Amino acid sequence: MRTSYQKQITLNLPILTLGQSEPLPDRGRRLLTVCHLPVAKIYSRPSMLATRVWKRAPRLSARTLSTTRLCNNETPRNSLTRSVEEENKGLNSMDHLLKVVRDHTNPAYHRIVPIRTPILWSEALLNTAPRQARETPSVAAPEELLVPRTMGDSYSELVLPFGSSIELMEQYTNASGGIRMGKLMEHLDSLAGSISYKHILGPTVETLGRIQERGFYIVTASVHRLDVLAPLDPSRDLRISGQVIYTGRSSMEVAVKMEAIGKNLPDETVLIGRFSMVCRDAYTHSAKAVNPLVLSTPEEKALYSLGEDIKNRRQELALRSLSRVPPSSSEAADLHTFYLQHGQEAQPQDGCERVWMGDAITEKTMLMFPQERNVHQKVFGGYLMRLAYELGFTNSSMFTRGPVRFLSLDSISFSRPVPIGSILRLSSQILHTTSSSEYQTLVHVGVKANVVDVTTGSEQTTNDFRFTWAQEHGKGSPTPRQVVPRTYQEAMLWLEGKRALKIGAEIRDRRTR
């Protein structure tokens, strides 16, 4: 008997945000209430995402698409255009402003603070034992006593002398003779953490000490974007630098950049990234206030404004996520047109090879060892970034059947830490594919990191990564391959990938004009 999936949503769907469940905003609930979306079952467990409302996701068909009435919510198209304009303005301005502010910093304090733990794992295990009753948490300093910091106080840099050190280059080289981007991502995450600690502890800090002594710790909440602006040149040295550009009550926006330097050539910006860091109390794990920024120059004020824009834009994108609101009518029309061209059981007639999204998955399961821990005795976030990048690269290469070029990290969300000794399952899936005049294939890839409970077999998502790779014309399969969603959940992922590729393409296009 055919099951009808046509029901009206009237429940308050839980949304998972930074590892906690919170009710859907009133506006989003009203939208879902008046829009008839195909739903098999609404989960009441707080750990389920709204995009995963299918107990058994039905396949897409002309019937389900035609009977699905979507709200005339046209915000994505207009908001995407606005987001692209703001991203371009931010990238162009940030590149210049970061250089100006750096030139006014004290070179004596440019060093980074190591955030890899210096203590033995056996000692760390002893430190995690239950504290004696006499040990009480330190009293937090009142917010008014927090010393204001300048942007220069947190500035940090690391120079990798690839051009002058054959031995170092050997450690970072990939199979094609280039530089391993995954290892550079480890440095970027480590740098963002070091910058955040310097902002709170001061520019003269050399070591972090124990978390119980500090009374706080810092974690990466998310990565907004990492945009590649120029190819990596293995013959030149690489400078990785950054600083805090905006502070909230307990959060910090950190801007990082990579520059090719040396060889008697002008410095060239290779990559710009934006990290969101949050401060937590070491004992209660609740939000802890961070030092405010003092702005003394027009450039610092401009950077601060850019940091605030990044925070607001990230929140706006989260509210427009398809896990919160339905697709717009234009997106529904795009999906239906794509279904008519590629979603039928017969192979499409446009010369493309169809690949079902459910078949475009590559997985990797690993045991997390203490050698990859940070000062919080959890798995180092940069290590997870490298694992996700390399798995996504592998999946993209196999899908396109040829070499691919990294274009951007579109987002990373960190829901919960990964414990040492845990089993981590990484799953990479091709979410959207397209082509352009510059590239034969553009691939948007999602990578999820789940911690597996060996006693129950259940999994909890710890990280969600989104990347974009591209393949140049003539480098891959002569027959283009098109990923096609088969279920409603996959269709939402397909639309999210379409949004990400549109933003990335317009950012690159406007920068080359």
TrEMBL record:
Keyword Hydrolase: yes
SUPFAM superfamilies reported in the protein's UniProt record: Thioesterase/thiol ester dehydrase-isomerase
Keyword set, alphabetical order: Hydrolase, Repeat, Transit peptide
Residue ranges of domain HotDog ACOT-type in the record: 158-283, 358-475
Species: Leucocoprinus leucothites
Family note: Belongs to the acyl coenzyme A hydrolase family.
Gene Ontology biological-process entries: acyl-CoA metabolic process
Protein name: HotDog ACOT-type domain-containing protein
PROSITE patterns per UniProt: HOTDOG_ACOT
Top-level taxonomy: Eukaryota, Fungi, Dikarya, Basidiomycota, Agaricomycotina
